[in-house]
Amino acid sequence: MENLKTYLEANKDRFLEELFELLRIPSVSADPAYSADVNRTADYVYEKLVAAGADNVEICQTAGYPIVYGEKIVDPKLPTVLVYGHYDVQPPDPLELWTSPPFEPVIRDEKIYARGACDDKGQMYMHIKAFENMMQNDGVACNVKFMIEGEEEVGSSNLGIFVAANKERLAADVVLISDTSMIANDVPSISVGLRGLSYVEVEVTGPNRDLHSGVYGGAVGNPINILSKMIASMHDENNRITIPGFYDAVLDVSADERKAMNEAPFNLEEYKDYLKIGGIRGEKGYTTLERTSIRPTLDVNGIWGGYIGEGAKTVLPSKAYAKISMRLVPNQTSDEITELFKNHFESIAPASVKVVVTPHHGGEPAVTPTNTVEYQAAARAYKTTFGVEPIPQRGGGSIPIVALFEKELNVKTIMMGFGLDSDDIHSPDESYGLFNYFKGIETIPYFYKYYAEMK
Ligand code: BES
Ligand code: MN
Ligand code: MN
């Protein structure tokens, strides 16, 4: 593997410049104004897969943005790794909070700053460069298939259809994804869990038009006041969610597992200082690490209505809205929780308002066992390049495709995430460490090597 190291060292500048070129294309899947750019990003991924040596590379059209596929079948007897990643990114706003423009990548303090630097262009591109490196040196130790999509940040609605229609083409022994985070650069971890997601939008309507808040105020239900109260009522004094049946399906995590997860390094004072908060808040009886991994949540992501322009307008609004997400844990399911939310929300609405609940995308939670050849091969790869054993850790975010791969292809996922929670994904000033980018490229080939040996 020494020649891989030499090749990586010799090509670092180019590997970085190619990532920069990818980051310069604003592939915002949520906003149709960027659709030409999103498609252009698929073309770029296509070109780079071809250049790296993949066969049968194809831009697969869907009802939405394309999926880029490519493969290298070395020997049908070898195990097959299916690499998944996404080339779309979150919207960059609020733009004014970026230190440098989101689609003009720069390096500051040994970090690459750009929208998508970590989530997921930087992490996805590591796999293409690791593949190039293997192809240029000892060859690839496993068969590999790439499936890089462009709708992850908007719920991957066309990916399920593609997977179901291409089961044979996608058949693999393991799925490999870098789209999560690790604990710290000197405390590597492998993500062994993801939360699911149920996401709804609510509309609360009071009177049929905006009213004068003096003429009618005090006598007519204000939908914003009412929505606020309804939302506030959905957590009790212990910060547990009050929707009837919400916790019924939740699998309890064993005392041993909870003990192990709380041994991961965590400093509450640093956490508070990093976020500039005076105190933390969460479900009674659980630690911060547990609250962000093994427990479900309900959060308002946005709330609006009434007058929000300059100055003061006295108005009793007709409507109020909110976008609400619920993070789910095994064995909750997205459809069931959405249904429970809808029934509850409708049942607590007073007669003075009408409510409409509209579900958005969702996804199921997932867990990866650690007693498998796949996990052990990944752990050995980290041990080799970081010099320490990685810690298995469940993460709080969602990648709905992981549960889908398990259902449709009957294959488990290994999540080798090289990001950090401080990379500010989805936020202004998203970044990805140079260390992380190159360490990922260095570590991935070892996974192939050990997996081929151990399988
Ligand atoms: N890469 C993230 C998910 C993630 C981040 C998992 C950090 C674990 C740690 C992914 O791109 C993402 O943002 N997913 C969305 C869900 C999706 C359905 C829009 C999320 O978690 O909000
Ligand atoms: Mn992602
Ligand atoms: Mn994301």
Instruction: Round the Cα radius of gyration to an integer and report it.
Output: 23 Å
Number of helices: 13
Poorly predicted spans? none
CATH architecture field of the largest domain: 3-Layer(aba) Sandwich
Ligand list: ligand BES, manganese (II) ion
Instruction: State the CATH topology of the largest domain.
Output: Aminopeptidase
The share of residues in helices is 25-40%
Strand content: 15-25%
Helix vs. strand class: alpha/beta
Average pLDDT for all residues: 97
Q: Would you report the number of β strands?
A: 18
Distance between the termini: 19 Å
CATH class of the largest domain: Alpha Beta
Name the strands of the widest sheet in spatial order.
1-2-6-3-7-16
Within CATH, the superfamily of the largest domain carries the name: Zn peptidases
Number of domains: 2
Describe the structure in your own words:
- With 455 residues, this protein is of the alpha/beta class.
- It has two domains: 2-194 and 366-454, Aminopeptidase (3-Layer(aba) Sandwich); 196-250 and 296-363, Alpha-Beta Plaits (2-Layer Sandwich), CATH 3.30.70.360.
- It has 13 helices and 18 strands.
- It has helices at residues 2-23, 35-52, 121-136, 159-165, 167-170, 223-232, 255-261, 268-275, 288-291, 334-347, 373-386, 401-409, 434-454; strands at residues 55-60, 67-72, 80-86, 106-108, 111-113, 143-149, 174-177, 181-182, 189-194, 196-205, 297-305, 319-328, 354-363, 366-367, 391-394, 413-415, 419-420, 431-433.
- The strands form five sheets. Strands 1-2-6-3-7-16 form a six-stranded mixed sheet, with helices on both faces. The protein has a four-stranded antiparallel sheet with strand order 11-12-10-13, covered by helices on one side.
- A hairpin with a 6-residue loop joins strand 1 (55-60) and strand 2.
- Helix 2 (35-52) runs parallel beside helix 3 (121-136) and helix 11 crosses helix 13 (434-454).
- The protein is globular, with a radius of gyration of 23 Å.
- The protein binds ligand BES and manganese (II) ion (2 copies).
- One manganese (II) ion binds next to loops.
- One manganese (II) ion binds at residues 90, 119, 153, 425-426.
